[in-house]
Amino acid sequence: MLEIKDLHKRFGDVVALDGVSLSAKPGEVVGFVGANGAGKTTTMRIAMGVLASDSGEIVYNGTPLGSKQRQRFGYMPSERGLYPKMKVGEQIAYFGELHGLDKAAAKRSTADLLEQLNLTDRIGDNVQDLSLGNQQRVQLAVSLVHDPEALILDEPFSGLDPIAVDVMGTALKDRAAAGAPVIFSSHQLDLIERLCDSVVIIGAGKIIAAGGVEDLKAREVKELRIRVETIEDLTDALPGTVTRDGDDYLVEDGDSQEALRIAAAAGRVTHFAYDQPTIAEIFREAVTR
């Protein structure tokens, strides 16, 4: 289990992090969401030892995270850290060896990742000759080549086309299925909703919302949507505050069982469920509170 506990960080007069805490259990994919400058990258850099915090700690499996443990992590920075004139296959294998693999193991892992990420035919190309999306795939391969115990990825989906997004998403889910805790940041909130088990929203250096994806969506439910086949207008008959959305009735602060009884008496009920907001809607509401 990877735990980030009560991080504080200032850059001069600017408070970058103000008590940031989040965690990822084995096999859990955590989406780290926030506007530009909210503190996501600073948090990840501290977790990987790139920056030092003013206070707080990073704990892995119950003990403070050290450099030897970090070597077993997979890290993908927001800025590409690749050698542009080095061939794709050689580069991935080289990073595998830096993480402690022998040459044969690094070569095998490289071949497997190139196939998984649909890059096998680019193995001999220089990185600088690849599209930005394929460079991003190589960057992910570099973070995965040593079979990491945990993943910390900063904007891994940036600049990817839909096919590449699916490929990378599958790679992350496979790594989580193998038991690795995964934390990644993204501005693509539809991906966060689709890929993540839980979400952490940060704003101005503070955690402003956190929880399981389905729990957060259920927590923010406000309106009951009812669709019923009837020519009768039920606006005044239904309990609570009632508005119309086309043929649907939206009921807020009303007794759901009473609403169902009234709707069923008026005609055939074809839809009766609480509206769940998207993660994007939850994010917008959280950051504007």
From TrEMBL:
<dbReference type="InterPro" id="IPR003593">
    <property type="entry name" value="AAA+_ATPase"/>
</dbReference>
<keyword id="KW-0813">Transport</keyword>
<protein>
    <submittedName>
        <fullName>ABC transporter ATP-binding protein</fullName>
    </submittedName>
</protein>
<dbReference type="InterPro" id="IPR017871">
    <property type="entry name" value="ABC_transporter-like_CS"/>
</dbReference>
<keyword id="KW-0046">Antibiotic resistance</keyword>
<keyword id="KW-0547">Nucleotide-binding</keyword>
<dbReference type="GO" id="GO:0005524">
    <property type="term" value="F:ATP binding"/>
</dbReference>
<dbReference type="Pfam" id="PF00005">
    <property type="entry name" value="ABC_tran"/>
</dbReference>
<dbReference type="GO" id="GO:0046677">
    <property type="term" value="P:response to antibiotic"/>
</dbReference>
<keyword id="KW-0067">ATP-binding</keyword>
<dbReference type="InterPro" id="IPR027417">
    <property type="entry name" value="P-loop_NTPase"/>
</dbReference>
<dbReference type="GO" id="GO:0016887">
    <property type="term" value="F:ATP hydrolysis activity"/>
</dbReference>
<dbReference type="InterPro" id="IPR003439">
    <property type="entry name" value="ABC_transporter-like_ATP-bd"/>
</dbReference>
<dbReference type="GO" id="GO:0005886">
    <property type="term" value="C:plasma membrane"/>
</dbReference>
<comment type="similarity">
    <text>Belongs to the ABC transporter superfamily.</text>
</comment>
<dbReference type="InterPro" id="IPR050763">
    <property type="entry name" value="ABC_transporter_ATP-binding"/>
</dbReference>
<feature type="domain" description="ABC transporter">
    <location>
        <begin position="2"/>
        <end position="229"/>
    </location>
</feature>
